[in-house]
Automatic annotation (TrEMBL):
Species in which this protein is naturally found: Planosporangium thailandense
Name of the protein in its database record: AraC family transcriptional regulator
Keyword entries, A-Z: DNA-binding, Transcription, Transcription regulation
A Pfam family assignment: DUF6597
Transmembrane segments: none
Residue span, HTH araC/xylS-type domain: 178-279
């Protein structure tokens, strides 16, 4: 349920200090007409660790149900849903969220690696899992956070509440988060990066050290991150009808052969690229978890 806006600022490396570390994609089948997705960047003083805030809202007629299927990002989210704030770990398989009536889900999306300072332990233990925020912040602070969010009227209020509570629990700086962010930015944007060996050469980190860094800070491997971002883009292009030939898609996304791309896409999305593109063109919900 996430898309992305970036913060601003510059570093001595010639790239934006708060450059994007997550893709704009992840909703499979395109955006439905029965829900709304809003997102805003984090405040500048929080943007080293937080990428953005997001809000999904809906209002359906009585008796009608909706659903949305997501292919998760390599990020931890704080998610406020049905009166509870939960920590949703990075990565994992696609999942479907069903909804009816009127409602909303609000989230805080951390940068890949950005949640470790809050956790003070390896993020890999969260991968594919979720648990109540009370486990980290305690019952009283977590309940107060949830109550304040529940009393918020709109997205601006939700963001203000979330950022106030985050500041109250803000951790000590960890310079490794910025290192991870620069690597993830390259995985997201640089098409010359096709393999983990390319990352190792670019940043002067051995493959073994890189794997350990990502398992601790991101919760998934650099190969997983690279593949997931490429598949996000492939799904978006197929949904929009702008994919081109399979050979062109595979090459554009850094795959060495078309069959490898088709295999990865089918495993992640649950449909072949052809079937997915056809379902999107016909306006059918193409996938479910």
């Amino acid at each position: 349920m996430c898309a992305m806006l970036t913060g601003m600022g510059t570093t001595g490396l010639g790239q934006t200090r708060h450059a994007a570390t997550t893709s704009e994609y992840g909703i499979l089948g395109g955006r439905g007409a029965d829900f709304r997705l809003d997102r805003v960047p984090a405040a500048a003083d929080l943007a080293d660790l937080v990428e953005r805030h997001w809000l999904v809202s809906w209002r359906l007629p009585a008796g009608r149900r909706g659903s949305v299927t997501l292919l998760p990002h390599p990020c931890v989210n704080l998610v406020f849903d049905r009166g509870v704030v939960a920590v949703a770990g990075a990565g994992g398989e696609r999942f479907t969220y069903e909804y009816e009536g009127a409602g909303r889900v609000f989230g805080v999306k951390f940068r890949p690696g950005g949640f470790l300072p809050f956790l003070a332990g390896p993020v890999s233990r969260l991968t594919g899992r979720s648990f109540p925020l009370a486990t980290l912040w305690g019952a009283a602070d977590s309940r107060r956070f949830a109550d304040d969010l529940a009393a918020s009227d709109d997205l601006d209020d939700l963001v203000a509440v979330a950022e106030r509570h985050l500041r109250a629990h803000w951790p000590q700086p960890d310079p490794e988060v910025a290192v991870v962010g620069r690597i993830v930015h390259a995985l997201l944007h640089d098409r010359s990066v096709r393999r983990v060996d390319d990352v190792s050469a670019r940043f002067g980190v051995s493959p073994r050290s890189l794997q350990r860094l990502f398992q601790r800070y991101v919760g998934v491997s650099p190969k997983w991150v690279l593949q997931r971002y490429r598949l996000h883009e492939a799904a978006a292009r197929l949904a929009e009808g702008t994919a081109g030939t399979w050979a062109e898609v595979a090459a554009d996304l850094g795959y060495f052969d078309q069959s490898h791309f088709i295999r990865d896409f089918t495993r992640a999305v649950g449909m072949t690229p052809v079937a997915y593109a056809t379902a999107c063109a016909q306006g059918r919900a193409p996938v479910s978890a």
